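Reviewers asked in the last cycle whether our approach scales beyond single polypeptides. To address this, we selected a multi-component target totalling 789 residues and predicted its structure end to end. The input consisted of the following lines:
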Amino acid sequence: MELIYGHPKSLKPIQTKYCPGCGHGVIHRLITEVIDEMGMQQKSIILNPVGCSIWASIYFDFDSVQVPHGRTPAGATAVKRMLPDHLVICYQGDGDLAAIGTAEAVHAANRGEKFTTIFVNNAIYGMTGGQMAPTTLVGQKATTAPYGRDPDEAGMGYPIRVLEMLATLAGTKYLARGAVNNAANVRKTKGYIKKAFEAQMRGEGSSIVEILSQCPTNWAISPVESVGWVESAMIPFYALGVVKDELAPVADTVKEASK
Amino acid sequence: MTEKTFMAGFGGQGVVSMGQLWVYCGMKEGLEVTFFPFYGAEKRGGIARASVIVSTEEISSPLVSAPDSAVVMNMDSLPLCEAILKQGGTLIINSSLVKVDTKRTDARVVKVPCNEIAERIGDVKFANMVMMGALSKATGAVKLDKLEAVLKTFFSESKHKFIPMNMQAIQEGADAVG
Amino acid sequence: MALEKRLMKGNEAIGEAAIRAGCDAYFGYPITPQSELIAYMAKHMLDAKRVFIQAESEVSAINMVYGAGATGARAMTSSSSPGVSLKQEGISYACGADVPMVVVNVARSGPGLGGISPAQGDYFQSTRGGGHGDYYHIVLAPKSVQEAADLTYEAFDLADEWRMPAMILADGMIGQMMEGVSFPEPKDPATRVAKPWAVGNRNGRKDVNHVDSTHLVPEEFEQALHARYARYEEMKKVLPRFEEHFVEDADLILTAYGTSARVCLGAMQMARKLGLKVGLFRPITLWPYPEKRLGELEGKRFLAVEMSMGQMVEDVRLYTHGKSEVSFYGRCGGMIPTEEDVLAEIRKILKK
Ligand SMILES: Cc1ncc(C[n+]2csc(CCOP(=O)(O)OP(=O)(O)O)c2C)c(N)n1
Ligand code: SF4
Ligand SMILES: [Mg+2]
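The resulting structure, written as structure tokens, was:
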């Protein structure tokens, strides 16, 4: 009998601490499914960031390094350089990557560091309780944007499209944006992750998969409403799809699978 | 007079707002007060606890380690409250959710079916207010005598329509203490 | 008439006090357990049409404070331990350039990311000049929500008067707990000290002003540092502040600051009820430390109680000049000592 659906080997069979409806859990699952498919469990290392996914290391059945807030790409740079035959995953939230860690993210990408960043964009600071993130949409409320993000009068700046910004750097080879708000998007996102991981193992440059993710708790809406909000508010601003693909052509089946 | 109370329940039972309102009323009655919530990295759900002290004197440690009274809102909280309650202290138990008897034979035990009373009033969400009424009656630490005026300053205007139900819940909680 | 008391979290009370002290600009970055403070400032600084920026990092925030302070504005930032480590760069520069500012640390447990529960492991960092170079700055340690508000209100004046950062060293307990608090009236801006050294508004001023910490000529730099240290000596004469209870007849004096001093007060009262002669010495200024008073008590027995592995205890030893027996009791990792724990330690030491 063929096994159609099971628990990924690389994901420990424990209940997560994430809130109901949170996107992090789904993203963890996608990562581990791809690792299992690639047979990389023994050679995967995750750099887990400061953010709700600080818990990531509890759930993944492979090694991890926890770094200071935002320094994730710096840590990942060094881990990958020391262990080039390993699959190195730099897991970051939007605050971690696009605020405090912008310098590290930009320069690791520019150097073309050969690890993969999984960038979880939930347009908010989840762990610290709902402050404005660099990716918070204009008008979106946050505890530090009590009247909504106001780029002009309050000088809060505009939401950052990270991939489009990094696409100008020669070091980036594969940039794609997915979402986990419905089954179709989950499937596509898995394809992006697989493509990025495989490119990493072939030794190509910097690869980043941004994933739009729900944070119903800090958006103060129900899990069901939150998947709708990704669709109606986030996707129109953060367009899904491959932003940059300069990977060397390979006879791959992944391209097909991710369609 | 110093009354140190430990409050415990699960997230969503209004343990934190009960503690805040308790000390707010105490402050309005001229007492020194302190309220220290348990704050964890865990997100929604989970445990909710608060250390709450009202006193006629300057309050020393805000952390309640040997409470004079413990409020037990759910089953899971009972063992912890039993473990730390001061010798001869008062255990106020939400008997709607806590169906077993306490092992603490020295304790004064007050049982109040908070959820049932709250549901009868109109919403189980008022269970915490029922409990607060019981706590006031059982300890006498905060009198809650000028309740209506105090509630008006505690709740924002938009919530004023719930004040009568809050008052009824608090009253019925007090009445439930024999 | 007594001012009306409000029930507030320590974090919010610090924010309100800062606004009343005339804080012109606030720059911060979110971190638990101080997040209510940045949220309070977001709302109320924007309402008051003052400057509020959520910076992209603590490094950025502290340098924004430095920039605002250089213009003579009253500027403030707040954070918690890991974030305050990042601010050390800016604090060192501010001390080097004599720029006043207010920095709030609602401390949590470390090292590293540690935990988010209250702790007092940042004493060394705060009182010894946590960044590089030779410097100190004012450190104030509140024990209650009221005192957190009062000291914050005052910190802006002290920072301006002495031209240096003034730090409020609180912890997660002070930040997260709610107590009754009353606030003084907003400060009249006319009472602020003049800042002829600040940049901007030149209005024909003959000399140009440079806010700068660079000194590339060693001879000159040495002199400048000596001048700054002479100012520190002045401060040591007038600034130290403390609270004490029953120290005169005490067989054992508890020393503690902030939250652990609250615990010690309770333990002392319990000990006194048992007939044990126990006193309490609580520094309010951690820098400058009330060393003179402690020196007067040398020879007595001390028990330092902290939420750390033992940091302030070194100052107790230092300022009792080796003439006192100094014991230590600490909880760490975010654990808070209970009054019962401290009483047990007292009884152990006094063998009673
Ligand atoms: C130096 C430092 N500053 C601040 C923090 C507090 N902090 C913890 S998580 C976090 C932001 C998390 O937001 P994000 O990266 O978007 O991750 P999410 O929780 O939303 O997944 C912050 C500011 C910290 N731990 N260290
Ligand atoms: S706060 Fe948001 S990001 Fe964090 S676990 Fe909950 S839903 Fe997920
Ligand atoms: Mg986020």
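The longest strand of chain A covers residues 172-179. We regard this as preliminary and will revisit it once experimental data from Aim 1 are available.
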